[in-house]
Design a protein that fits this description.
This protein has 26 helices and 31 strands. With about 850 residues, it is of the alpha/beta class.
Length: about 850
Amino acid sequence: MAFNHFPAGVHDALTPLSVTPVTHSMPMAKNHRPDRTRTDTASGPSPGTILDRLASGPSRASRITHTEHLPPRAGRHAVWPDRIRAEVVAAVQSAGIDHPWAHQAQAAEHALDGDSVVVATGTASGKSLAYLVPVLSALLDGSEAPNGRGATALYLAPTKALAADQRRSVKELAHPLGTSVRPAVYDGDTPFEEREWIRQYGNYVLTNPDMLHRGILPSHPRWSSFLKALKYVVVDECHTYRGVFGSHVAQVLRRLRRLCARYGASPVFLLASATAAEPAVAARRLTGLPVVEVADDASPRGELVFALWEPPLTELHGEKGAPIRRTATAETADLLTDLAVQGVRTVAFVRSRRGAELISVIAQERLAEVDRSLARRVAAYRGGYLPEERRALERALHSGELLGLAATTALELGVDVSGLDAVLIAGYPGTRASLWQQAGRAGRSGGGALAVLVARDDPLDTFLVHHPEALFDQPVESTVLDPDNPYVLAPHLCAAAAEVPLTDDDLELFGPACAELLPQLESAKLLRRRTKAWHWTRRERAADLTDIRGEGGRPVQIVETGTGRLLGTVDEGAAHTAVHEGAVHLHQGRTYLVRSLDLEDAVALVEEASPPYSTVARDTTSISVLETDTEVPWGQGRLCYGSVEVTNQVVSFLRRRLITGEVLGETKLDLPPRTLRTRAVWWTVTEDQLDEARIPPEILGGALHAAEHASIGMLPLFATCDRWDIGGVSVPLHPDTLLPTVFVYDGHPGGAGFAERAFHTARAWLAATREAISSCECDAGCPSCIQSPKCGNGNDPLHKRGAVRLLTVLLRGAPAPQQRDPAAAAPTANPPEPARQGPPAP
């Protein structure tokens, strides 16, 4: 029997540890190291005062396990390069900015020199101005060209909200420049009647990688005049381009560079990231070009108070009698309510769409008991809303009409929300980079800010709130992406060939894996070689072979049965878990029950209802080894890395009582299985090691299962992933290894680099896993250490002490770090046809 954990959402609640609140002295991570020079802060209560008020309720103070104080920092000015147009400098000064920060001037200088540059400074450090000033200056120069349309610039953002926000900023800044600068958003929401005007006359086009991939590049002849004049490509929030998504974007940018070269252009890339380790290395891997790094943050910032908050234990017990902590969702809703009553403008970041909706509903209900007018000043913001709903929420947040917003990461990425006082983070967001990005949303007007991380009942969250040094003494993670992943590269080679036939001269641009892939694509009758070039052979669009966000397939539409109204969409890969029959679906504060899911027509029919529960899907997973690329002896056991095939099926769902999370029942489902070819790390143990660890056969499955759950929970501390990105399987006797085996795999076709990172950091990763389990004070295991609400086997069996003993013996045989083979594993050979790639993690 295999015990499994397919990639899925993270759960809520925490470990019963007793820790005295303490203030921790912190040497800051690279982009967050303040100096000790104090600056003026905005009026209003200080972040410390706001936190004191939050902690003043019954038992509230004991929930704060740690408080970090980041002192304010003074700024360092410079002057703009003299090659910047005087009109642009004047426009910037009319916006109230007399002198740039030193890093802004330095980045502009590189851009003018024709060097691609990445600006990797803190949140609200003025990165937008660093790239806008040289861009506007070039557009102004181009407007005076005697022939042609003049210079153009392309702006890429990971979300539509950020592109729309940037357009507002550009219009305001460029207003004194008249019609010389013509910014326009070109995305899926752009009306068709506007698109031709943008192609012909827009000289600063703001879009996203998805639209570039599906809309602009395949239609490049219609964009020829724009591409011919392309001077700058701005890649904003470039740290978000990681894993499979980042690998796809890297190939999209190579296709863009190839078409620009065809039209005689060689644009300079200007990248921006608030949080990135080795930003020049990541930017070079993303663009395929040499990139200069500007990372010395010269901007000022106000005081930041960062609190770690652990919800209390409840009187309830979960599966196998495990103690249950109050959910992070309920705790965050309470804090958001309290902050709104105080008039503190707050954004609560939540991992899931459902969580964002729940927090807003709970906060609205509680605010209505205080003052009905306050309830209207809290809302939810998430992906899947219709465009007009998103725009209305963004305007309300900008204007201050909204006091509180429960948002998914759709609002994390750079939307300029001035005047926020506090940020609540409902559960560790998966990486330190995202944590600092979210915390940086507050205090953007220069005043002090409060950030509170509310821990979920999850091994990693529990570990972090009691080991603050793992957050505050460590730099942000390196960005992991693999453009050579054949599941990523193959469809982009097809798309590139459909745009312009591929020649031998193009192979260097797309990477060394091309030589092996092109014959395979030719054998699959996707490409055909004629004379000296490869041509696309199919009638359908090559760009439709892949979804660059790794989701695949067309979105499932969510339709209200009584009215036929379209409520929104959900990705096909998530449909099995999110909108299965019987699922509870939340939208704009209203609750719906899914009556049917038609996978063939991609439609979920829902009707409004008010069930006293939420739903959580359960699944089963099996795994087979396709190829072992690397293996290392760990004593008698072995640590391996290679290619696997995972088969997953959603089999049932649980109904959980709102607020408490108590399980009310389970309902079976009949959904088809899905297969996934990906990359995995796995470890095996021998009979002798089991004897040494005192693991008899009757507890072996539970010990392996517990170690698997906890290791999945801890991997985000060592790789730029979260639990949505990875899955796992544990087997007492696996048919391919013939030994007890634990697998942890990437939840994306072809892999995303996370399992490879786990392989190379396995000693530290598994040591932290053992520590997380052993330090939890529960008796037999709980959600804080070894339980998972997404477990396909209902957390049965699990054996906490057996897992600790097993990991202890395994780690005893681990080689020293310098002895481990550092060679990176090769990409998977023989990928399937791109159009048939496996399903993503839900």
